[in-house]
Design goal:
2 copies of one chain form a homodimer. In chain A, 41% of the residues lie in helices and 18% in strands. Chain A is of the alpha/beta class. In chain A, helix 2 packs across helix 3. The structure holds a DNA duplex (24 and 24 nucleotides).
DNA sequence: TAGATTGTTAATCGATTAACAATC
DNA sequence: TAGATTGTTAATCGATTAACAATC
């Protein structure tokens, strides 16, 4: 992903760096709440179990946030990271599919806390339509596209059954969504200007299985 | 992660390779169901949007699954991958915490299908205890450790509230669990022989936010 | 000033891709 | 045999870590 930092230089920010930004922000918010004013790259990195040079290297993509010799100011870094991640203003989301997973995600308060208020939940099931989840009414799937269009929503969560995943995705994309969080175990086809993030839950269990099988055994059997 | 392949050579298998194994298996099962007997590295790789040489390189860690000149046999590859991942036999799991997320995961049929039958769900809430989720009764959290010990369960899913996460984790580890799938936004401390996989859901949304903010803009503004 | 700490480049490490001999 | 395709090593690419001048 190519960006221009605050000094006008152009960089390709690695995915690995992007993934660390939320971790930095999380820790910094905790420090802020604890009343901490300054933090060095070493302190912050150590608490996240990474190298200080990696943290500084990551920050360097965005032009850096301090001056040589001075540690980072927590109160400056938090809003700066929010702005870089794109959550300086609330980023509303919708959930398509109010099954078990959709329901669980709709109930997950952390998303709202982190800047992603849930504006709508949609399902085809007439029995579910009309019910409320944390104050959000489940609406018929047929209203999804108009809802997205009218409110200019950019991020959609896909928790529908496998066989309608692509159809619902197409619907959301046509309505203006540019980011899709796909929880169905299927590859979603999307145009280049749309970012699809696949969350394959079962992969997590398989990686655990692979590793636990091989740890704790005598070295020769691994 | 160091392993010994089927020819006695010792390797460190990269995490990136481990993560791809479930994807290979998934595609191969689909091919198997479609009655396909043979598949080349190119065919399989193309369908997964990766390079054929990467697939062969991945397979090479495990000694390879064919001979030069011959494509892979789907019916040989599927059980071989299952065995490598560690799901040639069912790997039972328990879920600690029957809140929204624990409930959703307990209802996720894919885990069972992929070889991870759910044996128990546990919660402290007396109102939840006794209820059934897909035939599995919710039990009191106080029974968790004994349950794990008696049935020799190796994998535990952690969907309890933040403030008790470490306590419940310690409990499971003491009872014999060697793999923890942590859905709480906290770093779990565990001994070396225990693998902890952190599933930080909000990170997914933040990565989407970061990228969608910068795509579709005129090049100069990214 | 002396110690601390950043920004930034260079060195290292690891993962991906290419190339090709072996062989079916 | 000729074309296809693997296993395997070498080349390339990218990410992490180290080093250090600048400077507070």
């Amino acid at each position: 992903m190519t960006i221009v930092n605050n000094r006008g230089k152009r960089f390709r920010v690695p995915d690995a760096t992007i993934k660390r930004l939320p971790l930095y922000l999380d820790k910094l918010i905790l420090l802020q709440q604890a009343g901490v004013q300054e933090v060095s790259s070493r302190q912050l990195a150590t608490s996240l179990d990474i190298k200080a040079s990696q943290l500084r290297h990551d920050f360097h993509y965005f032009g850096g946030f301090s001056k040589p010799g001075r540690p980072y100011l927590v109160d400056k870094l938090v809003p700066a990271l929010r702005e870089i991640i794109g959550i300086d203003e609330p980023v509303p989301i919708v959930i398509a599919g109010a099954g078990h997973l959709g329901n669980a995600l709709a109930n997950y308060r952390n998303f709202e806390r982190q800047g992603f208020p849930l504006l709508g939940v949609f399902d085809v099931d007439a029995d579910l339509v009309g019910r409320e989840i944390r104050g959000v009414t489940i609406r018929p799937m047929s209203e999804l596209a108009d809802f997205i269009r009218e409110r200019g929503i950019r991020l959609g969560v896909l928790t529908v059954p496998l066989d309608v995943a692509q159809i619902v995705a197409d619907d959301m994309i046509a309505a203006g969504v540019t980011g899709l969080w796909n929880f169905t175990p299927t590859e979603i086809k999307a145009p280049d200007h749309v970012i699809v993030r696949n969350e394959r839950l079962a992969v997590g269990l398989m990686c655990l299985s692979f590793k636990t099988k091989r740890i704790g055994m005598p070295e020769e059997m691994r």
